[in-house]
Amino acid sequence: MLAxxxxxxxxxxxxxxxxxxxxxxxxxxxxxxxxxxxxxxxPGLSPQQIESLRQLYHLDRPLHERYLRWLGDVLRADLGRSxxxxxxxxxxxxxxxxxxxxxxxxxxxxAVGLAVPLGAAAALRxxxxxxxxxxxxxxxxxxxxxxxxxxxxxxxxxxxxxxFPLYGLEPVGWGGAGLERLAARAHHLVLPVLCLAYxxxxxxxxxxxxxxxxxxxxxxxxxxxxxxxxWWRVLSRHAFRQAAVPMLTLAGFVLPGLLAGSVIVxxxxxxxxxxxxxxDAVFQRDLPVVLALTLISGTATLLGILAADLxxxxxDPRASxxxxx
Amino acid sequence: MSxxxxxxxxxxxxxxxxxxxxxxxxxxxxxxASKPGPETGTVVAVLSNDPQTxxxxxxxxVYSATVASLVSDSLFRYERGLRLVPRLAQRYEISAxxxxxxxxxxxxxxxxxxxxxxxxxxxxxxxxxxxPRNESLYLDDFRDLSRxxxxxxxxxxxxxxVPYADALEGWxxxxxxxxxxxxxxxxxxxxxxxxxxxxxxxxxxxYEPGRAVVLEANPEYWDGAPGISRLVFSIVxxxxxAYQALLAGExxxxxxxxxxxxxxxxxxxxxxxxxxxxxxxxxxHIGWNQRPEAAFFGxxxxxxxxxxxxxxxxxxxxxxxxxGRTAATTYHPDSPWADPGVRPWPYDPARARALLDEAGWSDxxxxxxxxxxxxxxxxxxxxxxxxxxxxxxxxxxxxxWREVGVAMRVERLEWRAFLQRRNAGRFDAAMxxxxxxxxxxxxxxxxxxxxxxxxxxxFGLADRRVDALLETGRRTFDPxxxxxxxxxLQHLLHELEPISCLYHFAEPILYDSRLEGLRPSALGLFxxxxxxQAWHWRSGAAE
Lengths: 325, 543
Known about the structure:
heterodimer; A: mainly alpha
């Protein structure tokens, strides 16, 4: 078990190295450099100025040298400074991480909290009116684009009814603190969380319904029903347990999903999360920021897969003894 | 399995709490001054992204420049008519040879921390602008500065190696204090980058990255305290969200997109807001590749013919919703240097056809496209963006030129790829927006030596008369003689039509009608004298 885990960690480290190298190379292939030419509007820096900056930031050095320099800094826990505003990359990410984590955690909780009962209810009576209705509703919900849903939520619940704030994390330029601030923030996050969660509800409820429906038809469940066990007992003791293995596959993506910002939701609701930071950094060719975020999400993905992998072994001992994929 | 859900909720709340705790609180600042209006004296404006720096000197983005112009002050500033007015410079003198400038500073001006503004600060500010690490636009303005010295605490003398008639423009540089950084001229990573100390009408109260820049009035400002108590920039990347917030009264003024402008005309809630239009220092233009090796646009008659074939007035009314102003040259119509005698070319398809005939392009095979020496007049127009207005303009031009026997194909490129192609001269014609200066010198744009990457003459104009006028103009200090030189240049450029200026696009603004003192200018509403320091809420106003 331990050897298996160490093996996966080692391959994971190699994968991360590959991911960072690819990101580095891809951004070099885009037809411009971060200091770039004159901006679309407004005058820009002179060519001499750009040349001296390039030397200052080592952008004039060959690719492999710059990559090794970056790698060396990362190993010394230094993510460098952003080319956009010359602030430390670690600080920029740390500022935005709590918001992204909060949003994603709440959205995930909401999605799971709604999807599991909805899906389970449908799985108990496959083909029933309830099953068909939730199925149709989930399909409809899943097809609604996020940018549209966001604008609609803003327009109805905020602009028209005034129930929720339009945008932001708290009133702009407001100096509230403590519980009052917590309440303000919770109030501000309702619409973005709804916006992030509805697609998950649709998808997860169908997923729960399908995996459960399969185990409900299985022999263990039928035997339990025959013994006169209640539906609740059958579901919690037998059906969910059997469905746990396929659900773990999804759980492996939960960790990276919690770190991934949604650029659309963050833009519509003007929230400073990691999604906007990443997309802005790509457009600005802000290499240190892009690399740091790639590295973090890569690590989270690998850890998530590793965790799911190890959990398989616990739930189903057959899985870990075979050749590790 | 069922135990998982509460666990996830617990995690979420702990993260939410942690997020709050991690944020720096400033105790004692708990007034509900966030709602804009006469009750609070607060004005809320919008930036669509974070300023790259809050240091008054450094970086080139418009957000940084906006904040810098409010937090600090400079020796000179542009007023609405695009003329320089002395601000911190009480008076100045230029030597007869045009190489020595002496400035006498206004006494009694203080930094936000109470220290006096001195000649030493001016000298330090210039050193900061010249430090390449600050990525300042002003670096170029001081390239020919050979010597700068403080003669006494309130007098500065600058010597240039070459006389330059527009050298005063560099002195719109916002000042930074010499005493904060201990003489370190690298500002972007130092204390001034996040907590600037200036001497302007506003001072920074708080910066919340990704969310807001909060400025408050400086009651000690030498020219009188501003009429509003706080100016908050809310950082909202989506203009539609900002528009809804404006209608809800959370934002006081907002620049709209053409689509939102049209929407606001039908929106009853928008009726109580005041509308304002200004034409920024930009022009939408087509550059014609007239290098000797280029195929189509070496002849000025052809270039003129194509602009004569466009009915810009009716396109402006029908498609641009009146937001375009037909342009004549790269001299902005609000500039004191623009010659009123140079009018935009009218719509005259008959004259366009005659000019094309004269230049040897005629349709001999009757297929609707002219040709010369066996080569059909079919060219490619490069564009950089695919927004609706650009697309509609390209379609309209395609159709208009087809009617005079010229075929045009559109090629859309990503902005950086567009610039690369254009600057390398691999194009027939290229359409984009061009920034204009307030100064009359346009050497960088039109001189035959000003090819990219150093200059902007990507279209390959090489005309001896133009070169001579540009060279004389930048060495002539006498305003009347200068005016004559640049008037002649504008007439000449109008005949040569090396680039075709299409429109100056208006920036439409919607603002709270209780807010007074906002005046349109080509420089916008912020970085101009008098800017937000002259704004005030109409007191006791009922909606």
